[in-house]
Write a structure and sequence with these properties.
heterodimer; A: 113 residues; mainly beta; four-stranded antiparallel beta sheet; 11 strands; 0% helix; B: mainly beta; six-stranded mixed beta sheet
Chain lengths: 113, 113
Amino acid sequence: DTAVSQTPKYLVTQMGNDKSIKCEQNLGHDTMYWYKQDSKKFLKIMFSYNNKELIINETVPNRFSPKSPDKAHLNLHINSLELGDSAVYFCASSRTSGNNEQFFGPGTRLTVL
Amino acid sequence: SQQGEEDPQALSIQEGENATMNCSYKTSINNLQWYRQNSGRGLVHLILIRSNEREKHSGRLRVTLDTSKKSSSLLITASRAADTASYFCATGASGAGSYQLTFGKGTKLSVIP
């Protein structure tokens, strides 16, 4: 009965490759997010989708492209991976895009070699 | 940026003692939230306090908010070894038609049995 799930949990890949991380929530929430947590544990918002529409797009390289096929899924595709992309990526969801708590997935640890 | 800044960065206490963590931020907020992150896991929401509230309790947690000083504190009473984790404050605010949570860098709490 996992609320927010991400796959894969670990991802090790070479520089220049393209990879995707999938996220699904079964909470019936309207809003989903992608965050990046660096090695110093700093958590930064990347994207936010509300009912499959992009509402937040922080300064992220356009190699990162989120895709929301329906409001329960928000996938993250990364092209031409770079060493600096190594981090833990968290998906989250909330009931609406307003003042609500967010529910986080377990994270995907991406290592670019 | 209205990024929250937690203080201290790290805190080590004995089981049974109280732990206090502080958070400061820079601009107006709708609410402030505290999250816990166990090592290698996703963030878990602990408590949300709205900008018109001054204090909130949840079990062994007590959160205060002083909007005049732009600061909040999280008190964990009678700490347990299981409370060992990183604690993050996150400020919630609306801007440019969207609502966004901005996280601080966290306080790493170690509770020694």
